[in-house]
Amino acid sequence: MRHFVLALVAIAATVTSAVVIQRATAGFQAARIQTSPRADLRTAREDYLLDNGGGDFALYPGAGYRGLIESKYEARSFEDLKSKVSRLPKGARIWWSPYNLDAFGKPFLFKQGQFDEFMTFCVGRSIELKVGDAETTKSLLLRLQNSMKEGCSDAGEKVETIKKLSQRRAKEGVSALIECLADRRKCLGRDDPWVARSAATALEGISGKHFDIDQERWRRWHATGR
After folding, report:
1. If you write DSSP's letter for every residue of the chain in order, what string do you get?
2. What's the CA gap between 193 and 183, in Å, rounded?
3. Most C-beta atoms within 10 A of its C-beta, which of 47, 62, 116, 164?
4. Are 65 and 207 in contact (CB under 8 A)?
């Protein structure tokens, strides 16, 4: 009888050990799956801004305009720009509001005819290039500035121009947008200053700052970066 009991105890111990080993093995396999290099691939989309205010190019992280740009983000040539793009993670998205078009009617980079090559370069590296519409930032700014000089009888047209500058995150429009904050005309049926509010929304989208329609605070930020 004693031998029989000891045999049962031995069998139970063997079964228990097998279960523990099986669970430990399963846990190890799960850990291997979770820490697999394939699971660590960067798939989250990241935003970058291709900034070409006044003709100088810079490529930096984030979709908002920076008042002060570090030299490490500057792209001094077409090859330098491509080198910076090649180091971006796959799936990244570049926002670009071309300041001007070349003689072929395409966004202008460092010289004519480079846009198609740049687009192909981005696609080949799984980088999405988000380019503003055919109307250039330069022409939008000219329209907005003219409307400000003329007093702009059509507030709706002024707001549409502001929205387009906002959509393309055009840092070149910051000065004009700050001036638009002084236009406190209201939309029919609303007490909110329509033009000023649109300009403030555009500035927030470009800069990532939030100063509402306070023109002086926006001017201070534009002058000092704070």
Report:
1. -HHHHHHHHHHHHHHHHHHHHHHHHHHHHHHHHHT-GGGG---S--EEEEE-GGG-EEEEESSS--SS--GGGEE-SHHHHHHHHHTSPTT-EEEE--S-B-TTSSB--SSTT-HHHHHHHHHHTT-EEEE--SS-HHHHHHHHHHHHHH--S-HHHHHHHHHHHHHTT-GGGHHHHHHHTT---B-TT--SBHHHHHHHHHHHHHHS---TT-HHHHHHHHHH--
2. 8
3. 164
4. yes
* One-letter identity of residue 179: E
pLDDT at 78: 95
Is the pTM above the cut of 0.70? no
Retrieve residue 191's tokens.
């007490």
Please name the residue that has the structure tokens 């396999």: 29
Residue-wise pLDDT tens digits, 7-43: 544 555 554 444 443 444 444 333 332 333 332 233 3
Q: What confidence tens digit (pLDDT) does each residue in 116-125 have? A: 999 999 999 9
Beta-carbon count within 10 A of 60 CB: 17
